[in-house]
Each structure stands twice: as structure tokens, then as C-alpha cells.
């Protein structure tokens, strides 16, 4: 699988993401600076975690208006895979590639700890997990409280687009939502960090199958 990781001023998980993709059997990803207007020919575009532009205005708001985001939208439109983790999820909602918004955590503090999530459904991103599997992924965010209007939440639930749900909701997210896909199913945004649960020094290796799944889906 060929992939690109978009890097903004303030991104901090791009190397973790690249390592996870390599450990899962993907080719070494291209790192693409946010001012670029074109992406290399890839299967997956990943928007990594971090604090793009220092989270000024709202987390992800400035990054979503970067020149590279038009190419990311075109990639998604063509059916390419897009994965946004944490700050990446925030960028994808700000870019309207995913519905809803990530608001300040209900507890009003930064959360930095492993959390439990359940795999709600099979998808391009989750097909290697059993449905209902309970996983542990690290989290590190202050704006992870997923919010959307009632109609959008009904649509997400009705269309089976909630892929990951918290088993112990840390941030107040509506319906315990930890990760959702777009209507076509090729764009996933999630707050917990699967790329930080892929090798022995991590809390666990539950994240590896997400990246293996993408490598498998791309070949
Ligand atoms: N780890 C991250 O990606 C942090 C996400 C975001 N900047 C927040 O704190 O909400």
C-alpha cells in the first residue's frame, strides 16, 4: 500500500503513523507539507494527530483551509482512503469531509490515557477486527467531545457509520462516538490513536490490525 501523511505546523504524530504503516506491511509513506497542492499517487492519505497551527481559532480550523486539503477532498471523492486520527479527525470535520464537530472535553481538561473502545461494525478500516471486539487505544486530546445535530446522529446510526464507540466515554461524546466514516465509507475519523498501539513498548498492539486492514484493502 502506498500512502501519504499530511504534515501541518504543529503535527506531532506523523512519524508514529509512518512507523505503524510500515509495521503493518505498507510502503514507507510520503510526508506531504500542507502548502503543497498535489498528492503523490497513493491509496491512503493520513491526517495525523497533533496541534496544527497551535489549535488556534478551533482545533483543525486553519489546517482544514490549507492548500493540500483540496487534493485530499479530491482523493476522497475518487474513492481513495482517508484516515484522520485525533487532530486529523478535527481537520476532517472542519473540512466537511465528515459531519459534526469535536468540542471541548466535557470535563474541560486534557485527557491523556488509554481508553476502551468497541468495534461497532466492519468497514474498510475495521474489517480485521471481530464485530463487538473491545480494544484499548491511547488518547491525548482536549477537544474530543463529538457533537452533531439530532438528524446527523440519526443518519450516522441508521446508516451504520459509527465504527468505534467508547466503552467508557472519557470526553462526553454524543452516543459514545469514538470514530465515524463518511457515507461512502472511505473516510474515517477517530479520536483515539491506533498508531500508538502497534508494538511491544506501547500499552498494547490493538491498533496494528487497523493498518493491516488498510494494507490488505489496498492490494
Ligand atoms: N493528540 C492530538 O492529536 C491532539 C488533538 C487536539 N489538538 C486536541 O488536543 O484536542
Automatic annotation (TrEMBL):
Keywords: ATP-binding, Cytoplasm, Glutamine amidotransferase, Hydrolase, Ligase, Nucleotide-binding, Purine biosynthesis
Gene Ontology biological-process annotations: 'de novo' IMP biosynthetic process
Keyword Transferase: no
This protein's GO CC annotations: cytoplasm
Keyword Nucleotide-binding (UniProt): yes
Compartment list: Cytoplasm
Reaction catalyzed: N(2)-formyl-N(1)-(5-phospho-beta-D-ribosyl)glycinamide + L-glutamine + ATP + H2O = 2-formamido-N(1)-(5-O-phospho-beta-D-ribosyl)acetamidine + L-glutamate + ADP + phosphate + H(+); L-glutamine + H2O = L-glutamate + NH4(+)
InterPro entries for this protein: Class_I_gatase-like (IPR029062), PRibForGlyAmidine_synth_PurQ (IPR010075)
Superkingdom of this protein's organism: Bacteria
EC number of the protein: 6.3.5.3, 3.5.1.2
SUPFAM superfamilies associated with the record: Class I glutamine amidotransferase-like (SSF52317)
Positions of the catalytic residues: 86 (nucleophile), 193, 195
A GO term for molecular function: phosphoribosylformylglycinamidine synthase activity
Pathway stated in the Swiss-Prot or TrEMBL entry: Purine metabolism; IMP biosynthesis via de novo pathway; 5-amino-1-(5-phospho-D-ribosyl)imidazole from N(2)-formyl-N(1)-(5-phospho-D-ribosyl)glycinamide: step 1/2
Entry function: Part of the phosphoribosylformylglycinamidine synthase complex involved in the purines biosynthetic pathway. Catalyzes the ATP-dependent conversion of formylglycinamide ribonucleotide (FGAR) and glutamine to yield formylglycinamidine ribonucleotide (FGAM) and glutamate. The FGAM synthase complex is composed of three subunits. PurQ produces an ammonia molecule by converting glutamine to glutamate. PurL transfers the ammonia molecule to FGAR to form FGAM in an ATP-dependent manner.
Summary of subunit composition and partner proteins: Part of the FGAM synthase complex composed of 1 PurL, 1 PurQ and 2 PurS subunits.
Name used for this protein in its record: Phosphoribosylformylglycinamidine synthase subunit PurQ
Organism, as annotated: Acuticoccus mangrovi
Taxonomic lineage: Bacteria, Pseudomonadati, Pseudomonadota, Alphaproteobacteria, Hyphomicrobiales
Amino acid at each position: 500500500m502506498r500512502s501519504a501523511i499530511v504534515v501541518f505546523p504543529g503535527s506531532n504524530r506523523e512519524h508514529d503513523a509512518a512507523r505503524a504503516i510500515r509495521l503493518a506491511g505498507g510502503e514507507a509513506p510520503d510526508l506531504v507539507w500542507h502548502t503543497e497542492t498535489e498528492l503523490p499517487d497513493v491509496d491512503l492519505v493520513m491526517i495525523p494527530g497533533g496541534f496544527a497551527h497551535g489549535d488556534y481559532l478551533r482545533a483543525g480550523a486553519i489546517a482544514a483551509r490549507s492548500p493540500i486539503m483540496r487534493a485530499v477532498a479530491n482523493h476522497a471523492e475518487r474513492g481513495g482512503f482517508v484516515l484522520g486520527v485525533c487532530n486529523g479527525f478535527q481537520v476532517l470535520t472542519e473540512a466537511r469531509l465528515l459531519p459534526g464537530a469535536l468540542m471541548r472535553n466535557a470535563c474541560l481538561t486534557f485527557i491523556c490515557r488509554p481508553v476502551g473502545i468497541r468495534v461497532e461494525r466492519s468497514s474498510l478500516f475495521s474489517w480485521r477486527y471481530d464485530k463487538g471486539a473491545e480494544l484499548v487505544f491511547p488518547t491525548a486530546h482536549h477537544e474530543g467531545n463529538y457533537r452533531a445535530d439530532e438528524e446527523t446522529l440519526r443518519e450516522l446510526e441508521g446508516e451504520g457509520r459509527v465504527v468505534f464507540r467508547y466503552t467508557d466515554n472519557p470526553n462526553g461524546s454524543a452516543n459514545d462516538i469514538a470514530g465515524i466514516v463518511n457515507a461512502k465509507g472511505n473516510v474515517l475519523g477517530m479520536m483515539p490513536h491506533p498508531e500508538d498501539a502497534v508494538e511491544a513498548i506501547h500499552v498494547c498492539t490493538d491498533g496494528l490490525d487497523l493498518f493491516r486492514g488498510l494494507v490488505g484493502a489496498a492490494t
